[in-house]
Each structure stands twice: as structure tokens, then as C-alpha cells.
Amino acid sequence: MNTALIRIEIDGQALDVPNGISVAAAIARAQRPFRRSVSGQVRAPFCGMGICFECRVRIDGIAQQRACMATVREGMQVMTDD
User: Fold this and answer.
1) Measured on CA atoms in the order 76, 3, 5, 57, is the torsion positive or negative?
2) Residue 68 in contact with residue 22, Cβ under 8 Å?
3) How does pLDDT run across 14-29, given as a tens digit for each residue?
4) How many CB atoms lie within 10 A of CB 81?
5) Residue 36 — φ and ψ, nearest 5°?
6) Between these two residues, 35 and 60, which has the higher pLDDT value?
7) pTM
8) How far apart are CA 63 and CA 80, in angstroms?
9) 34 pLDDT band (50/70/90 cuts)?
10) What is the C-alpha separation between 55 and 12, in angstroms, rounded?
């Protein structure tokens, strides 16, 4: 893994993260919530391997992306709690 930092945005906030980490790791590193259930409960990654869908976020305008399965890339825009 290349440990150089790249810049992404999470909920409109610029964040420098190590290249090659998952979006879920970047969100956790930023200490941001992932999403809320329909009843308002905060959700977060559970399985970390794409099965549970608890880490869904919007990535570059595409909703319902599994943050644990996506790798960060320069300029990526991530929206949580969507």
C-alpha cells in the first residue's frame, strides 16, 4: 500500500488520508457518522467485507455505495448519512 496522502472530501470537509485505505477507514479516521437508520439510529460498518451494507454512503454522487468495499482516490467526494 502506498502511504502517500491524498485529499478527499467527506461531507464537504477536505481530509488528507493515506492512499489505498477504504472509504470506511477514512470516515472512521475523520470520526464521522456513516448513516442513520429510518428510526434515527446511527449505523456503522459491521462486517467490513461488503455483506451487511451498514456502511452505505454516497460516493461521487452515486448513492448506496459500500464504504468498506471502496478505496479512496484523489478528489473523491463522500457524503454520509444519506
Assistant:
1) positive
2) yes
3) 999 999 999 999 999 9
4) 13
5) -120, 150
6) 60
7) 0.89
8) 10
9) confident
10) 18
